[in-house]
Amino acid sequence: MSVLDAKIPLGPLSEKWSNHKNGIDLVNPANKRGLEIIVVGTGLAGGSAAATLAELGYNVSAFCFQDSPRRAHSVAAQGGINAAKNYKGDGDSVYRLFYDTIKGGDYRSREANVYRLAEVSSNIIDQCVAQGVPFAREYGGLLDNRSFGGVQVSRTFYAKGQTGQQLLLGVYSAMNRQIARGKIRMFNRHEMLDVVLVNGKARGIISRNLVTGAIDRHAAHAVVIASGGYGNLFYLSTYAMGSNASAAWKAHKRGAFLANPCFNQIHPTAIPVGGPNQSKLTLMSESLRNDGRIWVPKDLEDAKALREGRKNPNDIAEEDRDYYLERQYPAFGNLVPRDVASRAAKERCDAGYGVNVTGQAVYLDFASSIERMGKERARTKGLDGSDAALIERLGQEAIQGKYGNLFQMYEKIMDLNPYETPMMIYPTTHYTMGGLWVDYNLMTTVPGLYAIGEANFSDHGANRLGASALMQGLADGYFILPYTIGDYLSKDIGTGKVSTDTSEFEKAESQVRERISQLIGNQGSRPVDYFHKKLGAIMWQHCGIDRNEEGLKTAMEDIRSVRAEFWEDVIVPGTAEEFNEELAKAGRLADFLELAELYAKDALCREESCGAHMREEHRGPEGEALRDDSEFAHVAAWEYKGRPGEAELHKEKLVYENIEMKQRSYK
Fold first, then answer.
1. Could you tell me the pTM of the whole model?
2. Which stretches make up the FAD-dependent oxidoreductase 2 FAD-binding domain (predicted)?
3. Is the sign of the CA dihedral 308, 309, 312, 316 positive or negative?
4. Which tens digit of pLDDT belongs to each residue from 458-471?
5. How many Å apart are CA 485 and CA 478, to the nearest integer?
6. Minimal CB count within 10 Å: which of 48, 322, 548, 662?
7. Which residues of 221-238 are buried (b: 16+ CB within 10 A; e: fewer)?
8. Three-state DSSP state, 362
9. Apex CA 333: angle with CA 330 and CA 338, to 5°?
């Protein structure tokens, strides 16, 4: 085991990033024109990085497995993006955003990176407004803000429930300008299947054209992984069904350490599972918790009647409802962080108070907000405040203005009108805080190989605050990587064009072809999804909201068993020389089946509870996460050693010089 060097700059926290930028080496414009960079993934992180690097003069090759960068999973983000502009005048600041992020992550993130993220957050909003992103505005014309979980200020900028889509359109427009200039070569429908190292440095990738099946070599002076997270390990999740971990896992197998893989976020407000044949789950934005109140019945008989359809939620009187988050966490109420809200929902449902057919759901109710907003609108319009029908209509109009598309989405999926009856929600897999280990420059342990956005581990610790994913992705792509990658490339300007006609590229391509042939030639009887569902069930049961030693050991054994069964009995129809989605799915699942074992091993080795990682053996007196700062105040970075279960642990000690580490409290 070694101790990792994060290359954190010296000096006061508030000056580290400025001093670092002032001290790094630069590449002059003429030399940038001779350097090639590969960016894998074109969501908010990868797309913003590709556009910015091309604007600076580098030659960029960008890869996405979708038919267009506009289809990246970033498009699904609903609620907003954080920034410390303090437009509400409610006490927000760069330090407050920094503090909330560290605390929200349960003191398991790197202090210097988080402060830098808070520092550049305001620039992101200015950049996006300049691109035409239609953020919501107040009556006076200023950009509006709302709150998200884990904070007591309003710092989240939003565009109704379509924030990710609107931000991605801004990124896409910036990319298109560079594509038109010839500075970005766009490879749609291409999937990265391996990283190529030459003399220990990342020098390119092997890709497969998903339409024709052609295997291609691509060379560059640096490679950037921006391929998102690995939450589809769980099969059912809020991720797009195509989201996968293959790019990051291939990088890991080539020497990039994987950090904190067990730090996986469970989101508290997803639409509950509806049946055994479901393929994904849909998120209801955390922004809904601004105005929605979460409850279950106080009486077990009422809960049973709701499950059996003998009562509907409006039959339950106000005094018979348990607004359990408001009861347990009065200071934050319904806006506690996601890990806290998720565990509280599971606890109520496990105790028998769940409200849907399966017993795995709670209510998110907007009745009181509709009444409050309706009365406010009636007063401002000089209308009759005693007219109940008028108040309800005005209140519903106000809610529709803030959350209309989310309510519409819920009604289409559930066939229930959320204006008239409370939404049903339940926790599910949503985001991964773990990822490839990177230093302060966002470089992995492989020289020339970078990871940005959700593909790296650096900013969120053991739990991500809502609306911070978009912030990190755009910060990395627009304002951090374009500086730091130049420091590395400044020593590469004499290298010249990197050739793909080398033994390293030949060997990597051969290995890719061999793996594809093995999948296509397998004479099994079970489709890919059969094994993915089995893996998902193992992960949710043993590696989900709650974990324990016995369950994690069982998970590791069961994952190995499913992996062996997969390679023995999977069937992949068709050929490799055509569009073959089953082949693509099989390759991605093969990587998930390896990553899953390391995930369970990491959770087993972390003998504490922190953030979203809840070990049943390590709870406080009131059931809260109980950290062990003496033993586990570190980043767990795993080095691949041939098999997932044999990975070697390396540690980066986390040092907090500006914040006192203490047990979190949202009461």
1. 0.97
2. 37-470
3. negative
4. 899 999 999 999 99
5. 12
6. 662
7. bbbbbbbbbbbbbbbbbb
8. strand
9. 130
620: tokens are 């406080």
φ and ψ at residue 492, rounded to 5 degrees: -115, 5
Backbone angle region of 27, left / alpha / beta, with phi > 0 → left and psi within -120 to 50 → alpha: beta
- DSSP E strands, 392-500: 423-432, 435-436, 449-451
Q: What are the residues whose beta carbons fall under 8 Å from the beta carbon of 643, sequence distance 6 or more?
A: none
Q: What does DSSP say about strands 222-225 and 215-219: parallel, antiparallel, or unpaired? A: unpaired
Residue 473 contacts residue 43 (beta carbons within 8 Å): yes
Asked whether 48 and 452 are in contact (CB, 8 A), the reply is no
| Cα-Cα-Cα-Cα dihedral sign, residues 82, 87, 90, 96 | positive
Whole-angstrom Cα distance, residue 456 to residue 244? 14
Rounded CA-CA distance 395/404 in Å is 12
| Residue 462: closest CA among 628, 308, 577 | 628
- Identify whether the C-beta of residue 171 lies closer than 8 Å to the C-beta of residue 184: no
Q: Which amino acid is at 613?
A: H
What are the tens digits of pLDDT across the range 595-644? 999 999 999 999 999 999 999 999 988 888 999 999 999 999 999 999 99
